[in-house]
Structure formats: structure tokens, C-alpha cells
Give the backbone structure.
Amino acid sequence: NAGVTQTPKFRVLKTGQSMTLLCAQDMNHEYMYWYRQDPGMGLRLIHYSVGEGTTAKGEVPDGYNVSRLKKQNFLLGLESAAPSQTSVYFCASTQAGDSTDTQYFGPGTRLTVL
Amino acid sequence: GQNIDQPTEMTATEGAIVQINCTYQTSGFNGLFWYQQHAGEAPTFLSYNVLDGLEEKGRFSSFLSRSKGYSYLLLKELQMKDSASYLCAVLDSNYQLIWGAGTKLIIKP
């Protein structure tokens, strides 16, 4: 099992460009999450999904969109990148969010917006 | 608002013991997690507490006091590979994880 994978690992964008981050998990987990991690701050939830075809907003959703067309994949889109979106992005998954299941994290995507 | 506080950085000596504290104020409580995160890597699960008391797992132990909104992670027999950030996270009433900023632990020989 690969667990949770993310592509790409690194990316540099110019302000106004768009991109999609892909997260894939092979553990048949229902719940998937997108976080961003910035220096001196805790992980902040951007969007999450409780199952295929469903998405919901987290703490910091502005400027991002997501889709969960297949259970194993969760995509994070930036339509018009801004320097404030420079961050490390982590995807995570868990079997069921309404429980105490551990979240499993992908390796992260390091995004720089110039 | 919801808040989780941990020290920003701690230093300890190889072979010693270190305690990393975490205090929290959240809307509801469904458990507290500790994760380890090495530089440039993803967080990995260390422990989970939902009842008061101490949970021991090898060299690592985690303690919880719900009445005080307090937890600590105790690391014994420190090794150089324990140099990492340690993240405290609380599962709130909506079953969302609220994360602390993490404590960077530096181990010196």
C-alpha cells in the first residue's frame, strides 16, 4: 500500500496562475482533508470531504476549490494564485471522521507563489 | 474561540527526559492527539487520549487532564532521531481536529 500520495511535490507559480494539487489514497478511507501549514501556525483545514461526491469548507477555504469525483482522489484547485497562498499543503485521510480514527498524511506539496 | 498552546521550541540532551506541554480551549472535546513531524516530512501519529490519565507506549507517554484542559507528551531516553516538531491536536465537538503550532524539539549530544 502506498498510503496517501500527493502530486506534485514542489511547484512555483506566478501570481494569477492556476493549478491543481492531486491527493490519492489506497486505504479505502471515507474522509479526506486538505490542510495548509505555515511557519508558526498550526495546520489549518482548507476543505474536507466525507465521501465520494461531497465536499465541505474548512477554516480557510477562500481562494481554493476542491472536488471528490472518486473515493480515492481529492483534488485541490487554486484558480488564481496569490503570494498569500505560498505554503506547504498536506492531504490527509481517515476511515471515518466522526470517530477517533487517526489521520494519515501525504508527504506534502511545497508551493511558492511569486 | 478555539485555542491550543504549546511551547515554540525546547532543547534537551541525548539520553535525558523531556516533557512537552499542551493546553487547550476548544468547543467540545472528543480526544487529544499527539503527532510527530520531522523537518520536511508529513506528521505521523504518536498517541491518542480521551480519558484522564497516562498512556504509555514505549519511550513515549501522553497524559491528559480534561478538567484542566491540559496534556503533556513525555519522551524518555532521548535519541537524536527524536529531534522533530511535536504537534498537539484536539478533536472538537464537530469532530474537526484543531491543531497547535507545534513544539520544535532540539536534541543535543
In short: The longest strand of chain A covers residues 87-94. Chain A touches chain B at residues 40-45, 58, 90, 97-100, 102-108 (CB under 8 Å). Chain A is about 0% helix and 50% strand.
